[in-house]
Write the structure tokens for this entry.
Amino acid sequence: MVEYAVEVNDLHVWLGERHILQGVTFRCPERTVTAIMGPSGTGKSTVLRAINRLLDLNPEAKVRGRVKIFGVDVYSVEPYVVRRHVGMVFQEPNPFPHISIYDNVALGPKLHGIVRSKKELDELVKWALEKAMLWDEVKNRLYDLPTKLSGGQKQRLSLARALALKPRILLLDEPTANIDPVNAMKIEEAIKSIVREEGITVILVTHMPAQAVRISDFLVFMYKGKVVEQGPTRDVALHPRSELTERFMRGEL
Amino acid sequence: MLRRLLPEFRSNDDRRFFLLHSPTTLIVLLILLSIITVLMLYSVPVLRKEGLGVFIKNIWRPSDYDPEAEVYGLAAAIYGSVYTGLIAVIVAAPLALASAIVVEELIPRRAKGLVSTLMDLMAATPTIIYGIWGMAYLAPLMHRVLLLLHHHLSWLPFFSEPPTTGYTIGTAGILLGIMATPYAAAVIREAYSMIPTHLREAAYAIGATRFEVVRILVSLIKPSILAGLALAFARAIGETVAVSLVIGNSFNISPSITVPGYTVSSLIASQFANAGLYMYMESALFAGGLVLFIVGLVVNALTIWYMKRWEEAIKRV
Amino acid sequence: MSNSQILIQQDKVYRKRRIINYIGLTVIVALFITAFLPLFHIVYVTTINGVKAVSKVGLLEFLTAPPNPVDPQNPGGIGPALVGTLILVVLTTVFAVLLALPAGVFIAEFRYSGMSRLTLLLALILMEFPTVLIGLTVYAIFVERLIGRYNMLAGAIALTIVVLPYMIVQISEALRHIPYNLREAAFSIGLTRFKTIYRILVPVARRGILVGVLIGLAKAAGETAPLLFTIGGAYKMVPESLLEEGGAVPLLIYHYIQQPSEAYHVLAWGAAFILMLVVMGVMLISRAVVKEVKL
């Protein structure tokens, strides 16, 4: 039996009265990049928030269906256990503004007690920042507040913060939507190398078909709360079966 | 400078409207200036007689026959104001912080309205009602508590003196803390609700437990927590009638919270009726008012400035 | 070890953190409850004592009769003090609204000019001023210098200064929250700015403004310190003119509770009960009108 990193099965989500997700099903094999794409307002981010249970924060959200990571139902364990293994980077770059760059990365490992010494922590922080391709830019000001970083740097810091927990799965919610193209390319590079070298499974939400094609192995195309089409990226991108997918790939939706 | 004071007028209509309303600035300014002026002018006689000693000495000696024999010093009252203010902050800090956290983080949105209504009621209850409650219920309770504390912990300077009644510095401090809690909580709540969703999500996303998330977010808004507590302190030293009913009104400078004391405002409240009989007492009370004014102004100005800076900083993220 | 085993394993490792989580949250909730205990107890004892006092002479009698504390069997009521408070509150509201409305408009309309920002800053500073200082100042100017005796007008002036900054801030907030498209619509009618604002936009924001006024009114009814130095404290009869000494409910409570005899205390608790009902009633009404109330 193949073990899937993430299995989403018939997922329904309501936000108040609105039926945001109407039966979403897909699976992500380990060590792959799955891109969820589709026009904005289709519920792509909601899928991510169901996987790491961030929807718990929204009192109006109602979830039906099943989400498993490595075969374990996420609703059968504590949410923070799930989140400790499932990193997330948000659309908005969001490092904590009141603590230093170093502390932003070190906070997770410290809370989870996954390092035994200061030296180990230093190494982990350095590793995470290197993986996020930020180390060279911040190594001389690790103890400054992140407020002076550029938007792209802040986003890479957010990525480093997620990586510092050595997650098995990484959720990326339009990570390049709010930053400049140069930084966006750097983040894409970082994602690719993370999957290659660390064996992390990535789910990327994006509204840009080109980006999805560049980095994903599998594509899930969503429209109005439903999965329209999914499969290996080449298949979906080159031979879309649905007219909606084709129009989206051409940039018409 | 003048240009920055005035807006950019797009029409004569705008200019007329502005001119018509600008006197309101002057009126508010005039109120503030007249308070300052009156406090200063009326403090002059006692300052001329005692010099700055009026703020340092602990003595209160009116004289019925010879105005020159009158001696006044506010030290005990100033000491009491600061001491009770600090106790109030220590009492209000955990209560206000916990209520802000519960309202903003832990309870469902529907219950939020009810709790904020209760908070508002707490803030709106007239201080005189807190005062008579403190006098009739809190003070007797505190007497028993302080007796117990003195009995077991008299080696601590805070409980070194035996409490003879419940009307003590400690009682006043606790009452002030209770009264200041909703105001401090309001400041903290406002800051808490200003934390952007994506930062809260980020805290949860690294797998922090609820309590750990709360700790992260609280450390994020530490500046406004300090501001809220500064506000609580300023309110506590300005409070008058409730304190004067529970503090016991006597000139003590003692580290022990089990003895009666004075604050500047309770001194003014309780001595004012007699002040007309003497030459310098009224002036001494106004000098006390001047102290309150300066302390309050400094605390408030610092707080407003600090909060402005912090708000701008957090908006940049 | 497979990935799924790690997940389940971790759940056990997390025991300690989960316990800390529960303890921490419990402490927070316990402190939260503690914060409200005094309020509940105050409401409870004030009601108990107040009802006892009021029922001694009957509600109507208590609200209208002058106090008669020398007779413990029939201690009378708080009539004149209540009238005094009514006079003070009405005067204060009129004075304060006349000043606060243009000031609030000024702040809201000229948001980017230094002068209106200065007005707001001054109001915020004045709001945090100890009310005892306002009492002292008004005493010096209006009691000692201008009129020569304690009088109701000075009390109303002192209360006006106390509530003015609250009203200014509340009114400017209410006006600031008018949606931009409504503003555009109002100005598109082609009235002068003065008329646009006072005839259209002020009525649009009437709820917020009303709440500001109501809260100011409740504050004025409950303030004690400013009156201590201004109105004197005459509880037996209603003053004949505004330039006479008079009484007010909170001041009556303050003076009577310090008297040694029991009958005075009964009257004080009765008065406190009435005052609490009025102030809390006004607060609850305001909350019903708008969701957020700025104190």
